[in-house]
Design goal:
Elements (H helix, E strand, L loop, with lengths): L1 E2 L12 E5 L10 E5 L1 E2 L6 E10 L4 H8 L3 E6 L5 E5 L2 H8 L4 E12 L10 H5 L20 E6 L13 E6 L17 H10 L10 E6 L6 E3 H14 L4 E5 L1 E4 L6 H12 L3 E5 L14 E2 L7 E6 L17 E4 L3 E4 L7 E4 L2 H18 L5 H10 L2 E2 L11 E2 L14 E3 L3 E3 L3 E3 L6 E4 L5 E4 L5 E4 L7 E6 L5 E5 L4 E4 L9 E4 L5 E5 L2 E5 L9 E3 L3 E3 L3 E3 L6 E4 L5 E4 L5 E4 L7 E6 L5 E5 L4 E4 L9 E4 L5 E5 L2 E5 L3
Parallel strand pairs: 1-14, 4-8, 9-11, 9-13, 10-11, 13-15, 15-17, 17-18
Antiparallel strand pairs: 1-8, 2-3, 5-7, 5-8, 6-7, 8-12, 14-16, 19-20, 21-22, 23-32, 24-29, 25-26, 26-27, 27-28, 29-30, 30-31, 32-33, 33-34, 35-44, 36-41, 37-38, 38-39, 39-40, 41-42, 42-43, 44-45, 45-46
């Protein structure tokens, strides 16, 4: 796993006064202006090396003609600008030019360490939903029509596991100042990553075309300028269908180092699917993947690491910016020390190429898919609910099969299947139709097209109803947030059936675990299986009290004067919904599914939360109460 070694948060030079000329560095100062050099003064800063981002593409040559700098890289696709060697004073003068958007101090990049462990198991894990593994790796195709770009330390292209499919295509260290830099992987990290992605023996996509994009040197170090140069080359020269793997990142909690994020986004916009490692600081205070670049780029696929028991690896970063987990502990793959050499390594660097390989397999079968479509397909196909200790990350484990593991049936949704907007399931007698409407609601209609049941989620943005492999039937928005579900996670549910009698039932074997309820929810209560989302309110029958889940995540009871009577103290939180679960517990959940507050009534027969005329909020089961807000 590559990293920038230190936070970009420690920025020097901010607020410094410098004399600025329009474009020329040696011109007489006309006025004084405050300038900022992003990333200046950090411990990972590369002295005398800067990245200059220009406002207009046509200004590049103009700026270079008027400034005596030693250019190391020119960018034309991922960014508009160049990297150059210059003094700090020259960099500040350039930062004040009207043609310059910003100047960024170059940063050092290094790979993470490795450790020896038992033999690899990753391929065996990703082709099946559940443990234990079965000793085989099954795949639908070998991705021979796909191009994979490994942005790393290079690839030992002569390694036998690559079968002549690997080429060395870009070297960030071959510059005008160093024209004879050899095309070799003298570190090993890139070869190992490439082997997991596309090796004949160790790889997920066994016939993919591998392209070495070298941005890390023999010591496992590189620069931000070099990484962007590699991305720029991929953006300009890629052949579709294309996937890029980036097992490197930098800590940037204050979003000050957006130049790398911007480069990745532009490359994705050009049609390249990017897979990035979440980074390896999960057991430290900087373990949130959302603080790392480019792991936080939402348009890519960010990967955390698991071990052989499906637990999050202790080192793996976590959080809502992690899209998916994959094997990343004790991974055996090709290595750079010989044409048959192998090594065993740990890291999210090892997890990411498992996903990149799965992307290649998917692209082989769907060569015109956009990066957005690829991301959705891979994430949606993941196995839900299997990873332990996710630390608030979405609970998704890579499932590498690109083909459905079900046979579609007209009257049912089976485990692993989903219903998209406009799609429907029809009862065998043709009298009832269950559809996902464009307003985001699941709707059951009878033969006269009258609505007999719906999920009460109109306007919440639902775009996909999925019967997950954990047994839960969930309605998701485009960003993966649930808006409704059957509360059947962890059960044996394997099908949702639209029956001839007009019922919709969740079955597991011969048992049923859920069925549709015809009743319309009352305005004064949340009943079992229902959800309250941000902005929604329940009102007492006399209209004097309102229970609202606010947009800041706080659940608040207001009186008629608009004064708060009670709240859950979850203000300014990531809470997005409140659910009365089938186990009797009333829970506030974050977008990632982490509980933030609850009544502690699981295991009780609680079936309704009522806002009463006396201002109390009470959780009832039958005629008994099990919790109230005045406790």
């Amino acid at each position: 796993m590559g990293d920038f070694g230190t936070s970009w948060r420690r920025i020097a030079g901010v607020g410094a006064t410098a004399a600025i000329a329009a474009l020329g560095l040696s011109a007489t100062p006309a006025f004084a202006q405050e300038v900022t050099i992003e990333g200046a003064g950090s411990k990972s800063a590369v002295e005398g090396s800067y990245i200059v981002v220009l406002k207009d593409r046509q200004d590049t040559d103009v700026v270079l003609r008027k400034n005596a700098v030693h250019v190391t890289h020119k960018y034309s696709a991922a960014l508009n600008g160049f990297a150059a060697q210059m003094s700090e004073a020259d960099a500040k003068r350039l930062a004040g030019s009207p043609a310059v958007a910003k100047v960024v101090q170059d940063q050092k990049i290094t790979t993470a360490g490795t450790q020896t462990n038992p033999p690899s198991w990753g391929l065996d894990r990703i082709d099946q939903r559940y443990l234990p593994t079965n000793g085989t790796y099954n795949y639908a195709n070998s991705a021979e029509n796909v191009h994979a770009y490994v942005i790393d330390s290079g690839i030992r292209t002569t390694h036998t596991d690559f079968g002549g499919r690997a080429t060395f295509d870009f070297n960030a260290f071959r510059t005008p100042q160093n024209p004879n830099e050899p095309d070799v992987d003298c570190n090993g990290h890139g070869t190992h990553v490439a082997g997991t992605l596309g090796g004949t023996s160790y790889g997920v996509a066994k016939s993919v075309r591998l392209h070495a994009v070298k941005v890390l040197n023999c010591q496992g170090s590189g620069s931000l300028a070099g990484v962007i140069a590699g991305i720029d080359w991929v953006t300009t020269n890629h052949v579709k269908p294309a996937v890029a793997n980036m097992s490197l990142s930098g800590h940037d909690p204050d979003n000050e180092g957006t130049v790398l994020d911007d480069a990745v986004r532009r490359s994705i916009a050009a049609g390249v699917t990017y897979v990035t490692a979440a980074s390896n600081y999960g057991d430290t205070e900087i373990g949130n993947a959302c603080e790392w670049s480019p792991a936080r780029v939402s348009q890519g696929i960010t990967v955390g690491a698991t071990n052989s028991t499906d637990a999050r690896a202790y080192f793996s970063n976590w959080g809502s910016c992690v899209d998916i987990f994959a094997p990343g502990v004790s991974i055996t793959s090709a290595y750079n020390t010989g044409d048959t050499a192998t090594a065993i390594m740990d890291g999210t660097s090892m997890a990411a190429p498992h996903v990149a390989g799965a992307v290649a397999v998917y692209l082989s079968a769907n060569p015109t898919a956009t990066p957005d479509q690829v991301q959705r397909a891979v994430v949606k196909n993941a196995t839900s609910g299997k990873v332990t200790d996710t630390q608030g990350s979405p609970n998704r484990l890579l499932f590498g099969s690109p083909t459905p593991d079900y046979t579609p049936v007209a009257d049912r949704i089976v485990r692993g299947e989903s219903l998209a907007v406009g799609q429907q399931k029809v009862s065998p007698n043709g009298q009832y139709k269950l559809a996902l409407d464009a307003d985001g609601s699941l709707v059951l209609r009878n033969a006269t097209n009258a609505v007999v049941w719906h999920s009460q989620t109109s306007g919440r943005g639902g775009v996909s109803a999925e019967l997950q492999h954990d047994g839960n039937f969930v309605l998701y928005t485009a960003d993966g947030s649930p808006t409704w579900h059957t509360f059947t996670g962890g059960t044996a549910v394997d099908r949702i059936v639209v029956q001839d009698d007009g019922n919709v039932v969740a079955y597991g074997g011969s048992n049923y675990y859920w069925h549709r309820q015809l009743s319309t929810p009352a305005k004064d209560r949340v009943t079992r299986g229902q959800m309250l989302v941000r902005g929604e309110t329940k009102v007492s029958p006399n209209g004097q009290y309102k229970l609202t889940l606010q947009t800041d995540g706080n659940l608040v009871l207001y009186n008629a004067a608009g004064q708060p009577e009670w709240h859950t103290f979850t203000y300014n939180s990531d809470v997005t919904r409140a659910e009365l679960q089938y186990d009797g517990n009333f829970v506030l959940y974050s977008t990632a599914g982490a509980p933030r507050w609850y009544t502690g009534t699981n295991g009780t027969p609680s079936d309704r939360l009522v806002v009463q005329d006396d201002g109390n909020v009470v959780l009832y089961g039958g005629s008994q109460y099990y919790w109230h807000r005045r406790q």
